[in-house]
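Quick one, probably user error.
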């Protein structure tokens, strides 16, 4: 109620219409009042105070923030003190998304001020206590952002800073988008998941969760879409911390609660379509934290690949923010450290050079031309880590959505060897041109549409199901046309075109003991989906778009409940039958056909006229483009029939210069 909120915040000087008192108002109105409160109770303007002068930090020291007690709407006051981390001071670490800089927002240290972003100011206002101070470490305040040398030194200590804090408090932002209902659902799902395997869930649970069309699922999806989940720095902050709690407005919940809730929702298949990418971000973060807590330290390149979809204002932070999660010897061998005097171009080029020096072309997993340039001028063979991209590498183990199992155990991790176990001997020029040895295989003459669908199962109502089915069917129709599978011609390897297409669709995850696609258990569901093409095309123009509690959405959910109760089929099991995890490998790629009749999966930037080449040291073929006398790397590709060394490099190799 408005009256209660006014009393708790001591809003004494804000006139309110009498008719507003004693009744509930919208969250937008409350946010507006908070803005008024902030300006009303602010201390003197920043321009009237001196800018805060930081005391220099000695080796091994950090700054802790003493957040003074205060009431809602009052200006934020604090003190900063230098302490030695080895002395094991008591504090909480704050993890948040910086947000946009606002010149009129500040915290005050005595007669001095420090400008902060609106999001950090909101976090401090919500986290401070009314009766006593609170000790925090918050990067924007605890690090002198104007001191480049200090920034680099403190970034190098951040793993220990978050590891040795009592706990890490994650600030997701103020309440909004029905976040209290989302938190309620998180607790409900977390409780339901306790001590139960999804495969052994009792049938009565089919009716114990909100129906798919319930707004609670959309609220949870919105919570997972908040900027914090996509910020590069939070990966390290959440991963190394011994204990993590989340704060969203006035609601608090634990890391264990959100992890159990999301995994449970995904395993059940109850998640909404709009939450697909956000779910992937959350699952990736859960997996990284679990691996780190189990003392697993993968190579730096693997860590960078796993978190390519993260975002950072400073492109270098996509690397610096992940250094502490990688194998220390690997990082040292690559000579990578947090140095803000080094440009993004220098940093990214150095990483690619170090990877290529190992003798294989794994460095190209994230390299190639971009449809949307990032603004950095990089050679095509250098991975641009500033770009957010959720496409997975072709040789990635098939458990793409954590805890899922592939259709065939033999296809877990494919063994690609396009270059016949050769090693590369890269030559770099002063203008960052790269010379490799390889041979052009064939030129691409047809390029299909881009595969975009990731999560068929995340549907909240019938129309979403039809839209996703329509997208999949139209893509498959186009890809079949590109591959020419409706003809009786044989593939260049001598096998049937349909068999080659089937293997390509799964990026080689077809066991060798299957004589044809007809012997693959997945094929009958593929045929069933194809048969639905005409029905979906004819139905989707007039199908109702409603997301509410309509008779057809209730019928849709009731059908899932019956399948669950009678047949034991959860929505995720239904999806897993026809669309196992390996079927999502083509996402972010295109089906292509070469002049000699080879078909394959190529990067999203592929065009007609591009070439397929095999270079020494490459496990997979490369898609490249002629540019003057040299080549431009488009990216890695899967080309059926040349993945096992059939190209036969030998003495046929020639110099290929990549710009």
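Nope, works fine. Designed sequence:
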């Amino acid at each position: 109620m408005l009256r209660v909120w006014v009393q708790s915040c001591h809003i004494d000087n804000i006139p309110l219409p009498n008719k507003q008192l004693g009744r509930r108002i919208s969250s937008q109105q409350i946010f507006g009042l908070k803005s008024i409160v902030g300006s009303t109770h602010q201390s003197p303007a920043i321009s009237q105070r001196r800018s805060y002068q930081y005391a220099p930090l000695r080796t091994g020291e950090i700054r802790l923030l003493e957040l003074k007690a205060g009431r809602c709407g009052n200006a934020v006051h604090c003190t900063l003190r230098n302490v030695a981390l080895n002395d094991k001071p008591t504090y909480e670490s704050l993890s948040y998304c910086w947000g946009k800089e606002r010149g009129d927002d500040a915290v005050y240290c005595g007669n001095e001020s420090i400008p902060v972003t609106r999001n950090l100011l909101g976090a401090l206002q919500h986290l401070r206590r009314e009766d006593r101070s609170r000790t925090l470490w918050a990067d924007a305040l605890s690090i002198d952002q104007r001191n480049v040398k200090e920034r680099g030194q403190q970034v190098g200590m951040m793993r220990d800073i978050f590891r040795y804090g009592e706990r890490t408090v994650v600030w997701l932002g103020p309440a909004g988008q029905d976040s209290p209902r989302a938190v309620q659902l998180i607790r409900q799902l977390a409780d339901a998941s306790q001590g139960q395997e999804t495969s052994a869930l009792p049938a009565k649970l089919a009716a114990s969760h909100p129906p798919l069309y319930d707004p609670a699922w959309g609220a949870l999806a919105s919570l997972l879409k908040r900027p914090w989940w996509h910020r590069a720095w939070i990966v390290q902050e959440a991963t190394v911390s011994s204990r993590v709690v989340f704060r969203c407005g006035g609601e608090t919940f634990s890391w264990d609660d959100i992890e159990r809730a999301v995994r449970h929702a995904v395993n059940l298949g109850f998640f909404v379509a709009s939450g697909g990418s956000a779910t992937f971000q959350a699952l990736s973060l859960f997996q990284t934290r679990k691996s780190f807590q189990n003392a697993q330290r993968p190579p730096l390149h693997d860590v960078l690949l796993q978190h390519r979809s993260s975002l950072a204002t400073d492109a270098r932070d996509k690397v610096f923010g992940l250094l502490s999660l990688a194998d220390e010897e690997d990082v040292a061998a690559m000579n990578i450290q947090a140095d803000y005097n080094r440009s993004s171009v220098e940093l990214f080029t150095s990483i690619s050079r170090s990877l290529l020096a190992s003798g294989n072309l794994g460095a190209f997993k994230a390299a190639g031309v971009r449809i949307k340039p990032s603004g950095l001028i990089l050679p095509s063979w250098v991975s641009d880590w500033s770009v957010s991209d959720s496409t997975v590498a072709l040789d990635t183990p098939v458990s793409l959505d954590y805890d899922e199992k592939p259709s065939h155990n033999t296809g877990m991790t494919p063994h690609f060897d396009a270059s016949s176990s050769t090693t590369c001997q890269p030559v770099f020029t002063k203008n960052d041109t790269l010379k490799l040895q390889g041979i052009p295989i064939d030129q691409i003459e047809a390029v299909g549409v881009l595969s975009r669908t990731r999560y068929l199962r995340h549907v909240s109502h019938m129309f979403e199901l039809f839209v996703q089915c329509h997208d999949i069917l139209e893509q498959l129709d186009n890809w079949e046309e590109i591959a020419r599978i409706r003809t009786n011609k044989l593939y260049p390897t001598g096998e049937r075109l349909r068999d080659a297409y089937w293997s390509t669709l799964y990026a080689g995850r077809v066991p060798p003991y299957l004589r044809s696609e007809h012997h693959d258990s997945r094929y009958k569901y593929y045929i069933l989906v194809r048969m639905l093409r005409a029905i979906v095309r004819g139905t989707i123009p007039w199908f109702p778009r409603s997301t509410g509690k309509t008779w057809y959405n209730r019928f849709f959910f009731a059908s899932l409940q019956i399948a669950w109760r009678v047949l034991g089929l959860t929505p995720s099991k239904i999806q897993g039958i026809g669309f196992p995890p390996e079927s999502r490998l083509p996402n972010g790629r295109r089906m292509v056909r070469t002049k000699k009749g080879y078909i394959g999966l190529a990067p999203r930037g592929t065009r007609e006229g591009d070439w397929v080449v095999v270079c020494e040291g490459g496990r997979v073929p490369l898609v490249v483009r002629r540019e003057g006398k040299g080549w431009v790397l488009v990216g890695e590709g899967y080309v059926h029939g040349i993945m096992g060394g059939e190209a036969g490099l030998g003495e046929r190799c020639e110099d290929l210069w990549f710009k």
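Residues 64 and 509 are 52 Å apart (CA to CA).
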